[in-house]
Design a protein that fits this description.
The chain contains 31 helices and seven strands. The protein has 701 residues and is mainly α. The strands form three sheets. It has a three-stranded antiparallel β-sheet. It has a two-stranded antiparallel ribbon with strand order 4-5. The protein has a two-stranded antiparallel sheet with strand order 6-7. The longest helix has 32 residues.
């Protein structure tokens, strides 16, 4: 601690004197300028007036900065955190763990100190207002977050997380049937609002803590020491018995989704913190070391047995649930913890994965709560399934292969919507293996440019496991759309690669044939997903229509996705999952009208149309469609909404507009059938329909 002593009145006098010096200097500068101008004198090799003004402005700014710091110390005294003696001297112990470089930093520290003191003594209503007010307003402020975490301390942070949850449970269990302050709102709506408000507070605390661990205001040594103290709360059974519960809530926030989203008041918000990867690894290593060296049950288990009445499930107590959830939101931490290299110096050709941690985790007793966390961590690690020059994609391939085999064997009672959504991210990031299972083949990177662009693959084929995991995972709507969208992106990239591999002098007929062959593979992939979803869900007719429409919409969205400079063919499925989780807040299910419109057209036919549309978009982009295709029988250009002009005024297909609207696809089909030159290749393109049928049959097995 650094002791700060301040006499506000004396400092105000000093500040006034500084400002007087600046004012006097400004007057002198003006007088000198006037004299020089009257005498028509130029001072050589200098810009006296500008330099003097800069110095005066700097002096005034320094006075303002000192005054701001003084005001913050006074605010601490007024809040009761700092003390004042009889002579008016305020004394405050400034924490050494937080670096302060400006009055803004000091303001953040002061606010954090005030809020931490309030949090320790607040009643439920005050605490809810504080967390969703000042703490939420500052949750992304690195200095504030670091100071708040330090003021609370590791035990205080875990205790606060536990307290928030206990207040939430108590209020919901004793929720009144009628509220005189809100008589017109029904019980269910008021209950949901109360629950979401407390979950928002829980998320805020986790986010703020995550910001602290990433803050430059903390040194690496302090961050490591904080992690050690936090880990002791769950590895020392003499700590308060409920510490494992608070520990997990602090790391998880409002839920255990890898996509890190939660619904609050009809809006999608961040569910929990994003923590420093070394901080999470330190926590994970501490728990692993404790459990491997403990005789009998680990400390957190013994603490769970001290409860007078059951509190939560076993997964709520297991500290690895909180750590793994947080790792799911920090892919680097997840990969390095779950699949570290045996030798850090290894290359992608020589890397060998150390499976010790994975074997340790597999041997745990998982319930549905902790299994959500495990699937989150694997989802995070799978984000590294992108082609790199290092070993990340090789290690990510290894852990996803291990995890898919393991998850496919888990019983139905273990699964929740959250774990399905997390597993969907793993499958979406492993689309090359899903595609292999759909086509009953195994890729070879030397056989095509597309295969060569893929990240490292699995060592073995696991068709049965992939199918079983798809059938379980796709029971959830967000999971279904995540995988379907990723399949669309994969199919689009494959079509691009196939057409780009054609020689420069390739004819239109050759291009159509290549597109048709690729369309068959793409049709088989989406058919496989549809078949697996149908088998897993066992939908009735009406529900099946809605399921199919979700698949088609997401697949079409993926087909029209335009990758940026940093995008990869595979990987980054967390962002896809997040987008559909956000959509679900606003209910993205297809409307009854849209379902009715599509009932007359089979799923197979609709999939074929989207694949066909995507093929023509890419043929158009490469100039393989004849110029006459854009003219009607009177030689006038078409004016359809899914066509657009380029900078030269030439007409082209707008892929995004076409694939996102069923009505546009209907018009597109009419456009093809009305033009004999385009219609001549339609039969070849129908191979995509045959592929869909074969894939769907395989997915239903």
């Amino acid at each position: 601690m650094t002791k700060v002593s301040l006499n506000a009145e004396k400092l105000e006098t000093a500040i006034a004197q500084i400002r007087k010096v600046a004012t006097d200097a400004e007057g002198a500068r003006s007088s000198i300028n006037l004299e020089l101008n009257n005498a028509d004198v130029t001072v050589p090799d200098t810009d006296f007036s500008t330099d003097a003004l800069t110095a005066i402005d700097n002096l005034r700014a320094r006075a303002d900065e000192i005054e701001s710091c003084k005001d913050e110390i006074v605010r601490l005294n007024e809040s009761g955190i700092a003390g004042m003696d009889a002579n008016g001297v305020i004394t405050y112990n400034l924490p050494d763990t937080v670096t302060i470089n400006s009055s803004d930093d000091l303001s953040s520290v002061v606010q954090a100190e005030i809020d931490a003191e309030k949090a320790k003594n607040a009643d439920p209503d005050e605490l809810l207002d504080l967390m969703n007010g000042s703490v939420a307003d500052h949750q992304d402020d690195e200095v504030y977050a670091a100071a708040f975490a330090d003021a609370m301390g590791p035990e205080g942070m875990a205790d606060l997380a536990y307290t928030i949850d206990k207040h939430r449970q108590y209020q919901l269990e004793n929720f009144p049937d009628y509220d005189p302050k809100d008589p017109d709102t029904d019980y269910g709506t008021r209950w949901d609002r109360a629950n979401e408000a407390w979950l928002s507070a829980q998320a805020t605390l986790s986010i703020c803590f995550g910001t602290a661990t990433n803050s430059s205001a903390w040194t690496p040594q302090h961050r490591k020491e904080y992690a050690e103290e936090l880990a002791e709360l769950v590895t020392d059974e003499d700590q308060p018995y409920y510490m494992p519960l608070g520990f997990n809530l602090l790391l998880e926030g409002a839920n255990r989704t890898a996509a890190n989203t939660a619904e609050v008041d009809g809006e999608a918000v961040q569910a929990g913190g994003v923590f420093n990867k070394y901080f999470l690894q330190d926590l994970g290593n501490a728990i692993q070391a404790h459990e491997k060296t403990s005789e009998g049950y680990p400390a957190w288990w013994e603490m769970m047995l001290k409860t007078s009445s059951p509190e939560g499930s076993m997964g709520d107590w297991d500290p690895m649930a909180g750590i793994l959830t947080a790792m799911g939101r920090q892919p680097d931490a997840a990969l390095d913890f779950l699949a570290p290299p045996v030798d850090d110096r290894a290359t992608e050709q020589t890397v060998e994965v150390d499976g010790t941690t994975w074997e340790w985790l597999k041997g745990r007793d998982w319930d549905s709560t902790s299994f959500e966390a495990l699937t989150a961590a694997v989802a995070g690690a799978s984000e590294h399934r992108q082609l790199t020059t290092g070993t990340k994609d090789e290690r990510a391939a290894w852990i996803t292969e291990q995890a898919v085999v393991d998850m496919a064997g888990r019983k139905d009672g273990l699964w929740t919507d959250t774990s399905r959504q997390n597993a969907a991210v793993v499958l979406a990031n492993s689309m090359q293996e899903v595609d292999e299972a759909a086509g009953d083949v195994q890729r070879n990177s030397r056989r095509s440019q597309f295969n060569a662009a893929m990240p490292a693959g699995w060592d073995e084929k696991h068709d049965e496991e992939v199918r079983a995991l798809l059938q379980e995972t796709l029971k959830d709507d967000v999971a279904l759309q995540t995988v379907s969208d990723a399949a669309g992106r994969y199919a689009s990239a494959r079509m691009d690669s196939a057409l780009d591999a054609l020689p420069e002098d390739a004819s239109g007929e050759e291009a159509y044939k290549r597109a048709s062959q690729t369309g068959y593979s793409n049709g088989r992939l989406i058919g496989y997903i549809q078949g697996a979803a149908e088998k897993g869900r066992g939908d009735a007719a009406a529900e099946k229509d809605a399921t199919n429409q979700m698949i088609l919409n997401a697949f079409g969205k993926g087909l029209s996705f335009i990758p940026g400079p940093q995008s990869a063919v595979a990987g980054k499925a967390l962002s896809i999952a997040e987008s559909y989780a956000l959509d679900m807040v606003g209910d993205c299910l297809p409307s009854n009208a849209q379902q009715a419109q599509d009932e007359a057209v089979s799923m197979q036919e609709q999939a074929m149309r989207r694949i066909l549309a995507e093929s023509y978009v890419k043929l158009d982009e490469r100039g393989y469609l004849p110029p006459e295709a854009y003219l009607d029988y009177e030689n006038n250009y078409y004016e359809d909404s899914w066509m657009k002009r380029d900078d030269q005024g030439d007409l082209h297909i707008d892929g995004e507009a076409l694939l996102s609207n069923p009505e546009s696809i209907e018009q597109f089909m009419g456009w093809i059938e009305d033009d004999w030159e385009l219609d001549s290749v339609l039969g070849e393109a129908l191979m995509g329909s045959n592929g869909f049928e074969a894939g769907a049959k395989s997915g239903r097995r």
